[in-house]
C-alpha cells in the first residue's frame, strides 16, 4: 500500500469508452425504473380488481422477486464486473433458505 | 516499530496478547484456549468412561452424568475442535495466499475474545448451580424441562461464542476472496486455504439458523415465549430442525479443514504434487453444498414420514461420493511418492482407514429403516467418534506437529510424537470399535449406567481401557510441548525440508508483517516451483520494497466481549427476580455498545513500517538464519 498515489491520466479513447459505458448503464437504470413502476401498477391492479387471494399472493411475491433482481443488478451494481463471487454467495444463501422453508412447509406445517 | 525481536517482560507480553490484532498471535491464542478446553473436555470424557467401566457403577450420579455428558460434547465441538482448527486457519492461510494479515484484523481479535468469553461463561455453569444437561443437541422437550440455569448457560454461552465464530468465518471469506497475492488464482490456492474458504462459507450459512434456534430457546426459557412448548401450541420438532440445519454443516465445518491439513501433509511428505488437485477442490465445494441438504438424517425416527425419510436418505448417501473421491486422490498422491514417515505423515496415513470406517457406518445410518435400529444406540456414538476423532482430532494432532515450527519457531520431538501417536491411535480404536457392537447389542446412548445381567460388562471395560491409553497419549504430547518450549531450539524457514507452499518460504515464526515484499505466485505450490528452479530466496516478488501499512493493536475487542459476558449474567438472573440483574444486563450492554462507539468515533489509522526498518529487520533475519546454519542444524534435515 502506501506507495505514492498517482494522478489518473486518461487517454481520449479511454474517456470515450467510459462515457459510452456510463450511458448504457444509465439507459439500463431508466428502463428498470420504468419496469418497476409498471410492476407496482400491476400489483395494485390485482388487488384492486379483487382477484382470489390464492392468485394475488403468488403474483405479488413473484413481482417482488423480479423487483429485487432488477434492483440488485441495475441499481446495486451486481451487473458490473467483479461481482461474481458475491452473486454466488447470495444465490447460495437464497438456495439454502429456500430448502429450509420448503422442508418446513412440506413436513412440519403441511 | 520493528521491535518484535526485543525481549519483553511478562506483563508486557500479556498486554501484547490482550490487544493483538496480528493473525499469528491470535492463532496462538486460539490454540492455547482451544487446547485448554480440549483438556477439560478430555477430563469429562474420562469421567464418562470411568462411570461406564463396570455395571451399576456409582462414580457419577445420574444427574451429574447428564451434565458431564452434555458438557463433554458441547465443549469438544464448540470450544475445542473448532477453535483449534481456527488456530491453524489463522496461522497458516493468510501466509499461504501471500497476505500480510486477514482482511479485518480488529474483527479477528473480536471473534477470538467472543469465543473465549462464551466458553468461559458456559463452563462457569459448573460453579454456579449446575451445568446444562440436555445433551449437546439440547432437544427442546428436555431443555424446557431442565431445572436451574444449566440450559441458560448453554444458550447464552453459545450465542456469544457463536457470534465469534461467525465473525471469524466472514473474515476468512473476505480475506481469501480479496487478499490473494498477484498470481494466486483460485485454482492455485493450497488445499488448506480452499478448505478454510469452504468451511468459512458453511459457517456463514449454518450459524444463523443455530442463532435463531437458540434465540427461540432463550425466549422460551427466560421470557415466557412458547415456540417449542407443545402444550401451548408450539412445536418441539422445530428446534430439532434448526439444530440440525446447523448441526450437519457443523460436522463439515470440522472435517473440511481437517481434510485440508491432511492434503498438505500428503503432498509434503510424499514429495509430490497433490494428485487430482482440481477434483479435490470440486469435491470440497460439493461436500459443502450437499452438507445443507441432509440434516433430517438425524431425525429419521421422529416420524417425518416415508417420503421425507427417503429424500433425506438419498441425499445423505450422495455425500459419500465426493468424500470417496478425496480418499482416492490422497491414496494416489502417496502412490509412487518419495515418502517420509514423520509424525504428521503417520497421522495422515492412519487417518485414512479410520475415517473410512466412520464414513461407512455413516452410510449405514443413512439407510432410514436400518437407522430405526441404530438410532440413539452406541452404534451412533461409535460412528461419530470415528469421523470426529479418526478425522478431526487426528488432523489436529498432525497439524500441531506440522505447524508448530511455523507458529513457534521450534520443533516438537518426533520421538515423543510417535509415542503419542501409538498410544492415541491404539486407544482410539480400542475405545470406539467395540462400541459398534455394544450398539448392535442394544446399549442405548446417553444412559448413565447399565445392569450386570445385560452382558455389556466386558466390552465396556475394554472401551474404558482404550480411553486410558488415549489419555496417556495426550499427556505425552503435553510433556513434548513443555520440553520443546524449554529447550527452545530455533529452526529455519522450511524445517520439514519439503515445504511446497508460501508459508515455508518465510522465517519461522514470520516477522509481524509476514512478507517484506508481496510475493508473485507462478503456479500451484509456489515455493516448490522456486526451489526447483534453484531460486535461493524461495520467492519472486510482485512489488519493490516499500513502506508497509500495518494496523495498531487494540484493547477494544476484549472490552466488547467482556460487556456481552457481563450482560449474559444479567439476562440469566433477571428471571430469578434479583434486583441487581437488570442493572447488570444494562451495564454489560452499555460496555459493549459504548466500546463499539469509541471504536467508531476514534480514528485509528495504523502505522507504517518504513523501508529502512524493513531493511534493518531483513539483516537481522539473515543474521539469525546464518547462525542457525552455522550451529546445530534445525529442523528435520
Ligand atoms: C459419509 C459421510 C457421513 C454420513 C453418511 C453420515 C451419516 C450420519 C447419520 C445418518 C447420522 C444420524 C444417526 C442417528 O442419530 O440415528 C449421523 C450422526 C452423526 N454424525 Fe455422521 N455421517 C457422515 C459423516 C460425518 C462426519 C464427517 C462427521 C463429523 C466430522 C459426522 C458426525 C456425526 C455426529 C456428531 C453425529 C451424531 C450427532 C448426535 O446425535 O449427537 N458424520 N451421521
Ligand atoms: Cu449429519
From TrEMBL, chain A:
Pfam families listed in its UniProt record: COX4_pro
Transmembrane segments: 30-49, 55-75, 87-109
Protein's membrane topology: Multi-pass membrane protein
GO cellular component: plasma membrane
Subcellular location: Cell membrane
Keywords tagged on the record: Cell membrane, Membrane, Transmembrane, Transmembrane helix
Protein name (database record): Cytochrome c oxidase subunit 4
Source organism per UniProt: Planococcus citreus
Amino acid at each position: 500500500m502506501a506507495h505514492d498515489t498517482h494522478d489518473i491520466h486518461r487517454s481520449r479513447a479511454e474517456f470515450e469508452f467510459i462515457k459510452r459505458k456510463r450511458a448504457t448503464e444509465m439507459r439500463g437504470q431508466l428502463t428498470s425504473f420504468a419496469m418497476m413502476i409498471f410492476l407496482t401498477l400491476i400489483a395494485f391492479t390485482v388487488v384492486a380488481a379483487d382477484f382470489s387471494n390464492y392468485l394475488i399472493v403468488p403474483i405479488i411475491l413473484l413481482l417482488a422477486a423480479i423487483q429485487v433482481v432488477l434492483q440488485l443488478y441495475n441499481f446495486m451494481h451486481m451487473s458490473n464486473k467483479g461481482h461474481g463471487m458475491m452473486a454466488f454467495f447470495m444465490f447460495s444463501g437464497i438456495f439454502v433458505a429456500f430448502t429450509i422453508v420448503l422442508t418446513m412447509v412440506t413436513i412440519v406445517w403441511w | 516499530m520493528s521491535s518484535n525481536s526485543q525481549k519483553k517482560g511478562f506483563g508486557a507480553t500479556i498486554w501484547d496478547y490482550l490487544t493483538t490484532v496480528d493473525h499469528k498471535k491470535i492463532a496462538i491464542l486460539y490454540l492455547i484456549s482451544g487446547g485448554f478446553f480440549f483438556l477439560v473436555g478430555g477430563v469429562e470424557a474420562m469421567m464418562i468412561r470411568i462411570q461406564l467401566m463396570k455395571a451399576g457403577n456409582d462414580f457419577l450420579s445420574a444427574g451429574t452424568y447428564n451434565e458431564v455428558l452434555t458438557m463433554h460434547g458441547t465443549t469438544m465441538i464448540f470450544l475445542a475442535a473448532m477453535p483449534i482448527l481456527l488456530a491453524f486457519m489463522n496461522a497458516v492461510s493468510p501466509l499461504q495466499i501471500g497476505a500480510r494479515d486477514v482482511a479485518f484484523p480488529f474483527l479477528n481479535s473480536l471473534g477470538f475474545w467472543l469465543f473465549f468469553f462464551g466458553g468461559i461463561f458456559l463452563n462457569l455453569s459448573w460453579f454456579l448451580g449446575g451445568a446444562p444437561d440436555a445433551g449437546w443437541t439440547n432437544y427442546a422437550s428436555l431443555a424446557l424441562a431442565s431445572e436451574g440455569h444449566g440450559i441458560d448457560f448453554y444458550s447464552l454461552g453459545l450465542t456469544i461464542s457463536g457470534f465469534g465464530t461467525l465473525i471469524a468465518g466472514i473474515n476468512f471469506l473476505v480475506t481469501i476472496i480479496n487478499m490473494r497475492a498477484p498470481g494466486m488464482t483460485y485454482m492455485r490456492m493450497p488445499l488448506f486455504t480452499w478448505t478454510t474458504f469452504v468451511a468459512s462459507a458453511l459457517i456463514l450459512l449454518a450459524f444463523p439458523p443455530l442463532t435463531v434456534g437458540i434465540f427461540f430457546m432463550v425466549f422460551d426459557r427466560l421470557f415466557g415465549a412458547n415456540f417449542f412448548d407443545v402444550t401451548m401450541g408450539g412445536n418441539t420438532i422445530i428446534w430439532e430442525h434448526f439444530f440440525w440445519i446447523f448441526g450437519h454443516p457443523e460436522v463439515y465445518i470440522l472435517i473440511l479443514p481437517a481434510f485440508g491439513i491432511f492434503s498438505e501433509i500428503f503432498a509434503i511428505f510424499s514429495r509430490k504434487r497433490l494428485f487430482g488437485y482440481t477434483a479435490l477442490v470440486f469435491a470440497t465445494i460439493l461436500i459443502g453444498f450437499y452438507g445443507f441438504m441432509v440434516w433430517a438424517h438425524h431425525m429419521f425416527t421422529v416420524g417425518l414420514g416415508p417420503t421425507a425419510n427417503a429424500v433425506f436418505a438419498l441425499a445423505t448417501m450422495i455425500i459419500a461420493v465426493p468424500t470417496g473421491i478425496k480418499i482416492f486422490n490422497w491414496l494416489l498422491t502417496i502412490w509412487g511418492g518419495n515418502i517420509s514417515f514423520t509424525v504428521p505423515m503417520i497421522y495422515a496415513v492412519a487417518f485414512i482407514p479410520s475415517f473410512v470406517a466412520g464414513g461407512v457406518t455413516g452410510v449405514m445410518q443413512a439407510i432410514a429403516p436400518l437407522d430405526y435400529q441404530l438410532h440413539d444406540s452406541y452404534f451412533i456414538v461409535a460412528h461419530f467418534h470415528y469421523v470426529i476423532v479418526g478425522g478431526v482430532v487426528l488432523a489436529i494432532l498432525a497439524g500441531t506437529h506440522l505447524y508448530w515450527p511455523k507458529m513457534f519457531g521450534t520443533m516438537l520431538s518426533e520421538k515423543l510424537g510417535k509415542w503419542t501417536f501409538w498410544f492415541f491411535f491404539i486407544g482410539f480404536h480400542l475405545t470406539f470399535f467395540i462400541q459398534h457392537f455394544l450398539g448392535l447389542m442394544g446399549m442405548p446412548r446417553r444412559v448413565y449406567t447399565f445392569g450386570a445381567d445385560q452382558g455389556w460388562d466386558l466390552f465396556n471395560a475394554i472401551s474404558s481401557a482404550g480411553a486410558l491409553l488415549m489419555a496417556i497419549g495426550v499427556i505425552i504430547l503435553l510433556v513434548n510441548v513443555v520440553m520443546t518450549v524449554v529447550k527452545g531450539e530455533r529452526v529455519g524457514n522450511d524445517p520439514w525440508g519439503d515445504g511446497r507452499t508460501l508459508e515455508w518460504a518465510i522465517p519461522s515464526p514470520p516477522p509481524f508483517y509476514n512478507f517484506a515484499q508481496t510475493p508473485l505466485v507462478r503456479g500451484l505450490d509456489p515455493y516448490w516451483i522456486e526451489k526447483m528452479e534453484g531460486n535461493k530466496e524461495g520467492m519472486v516478488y510482485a512489488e519493490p520494497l516499500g513502506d508497509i501499512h500495518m494496523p495498531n493493536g487494540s484493547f477494544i475487542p476484549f472490552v466488547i466481549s467482556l460487556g456481552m459476558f457481563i450482560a449474559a449474567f444479567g439476562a440469566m438472573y433477571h428471571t430469578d427476580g434479583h434486583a441487581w440483574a437488570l442493572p447488570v444486563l444494562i451495564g454489560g450492554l452499555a460496555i459493549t455498545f459504548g466500546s463499539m462507539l469509541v471504536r467508531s468515533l476514534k480514528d485509528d489509522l495504523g502505522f507504517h513500517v518504513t523501508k529502512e526498518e524493513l531493511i534493518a529487520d531483513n539483516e537481522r533475519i539473515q543474521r539469525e538464519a546464518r547462525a542457525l546454519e552455522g550451529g546445530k542444524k534445525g529442523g528435520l534435515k
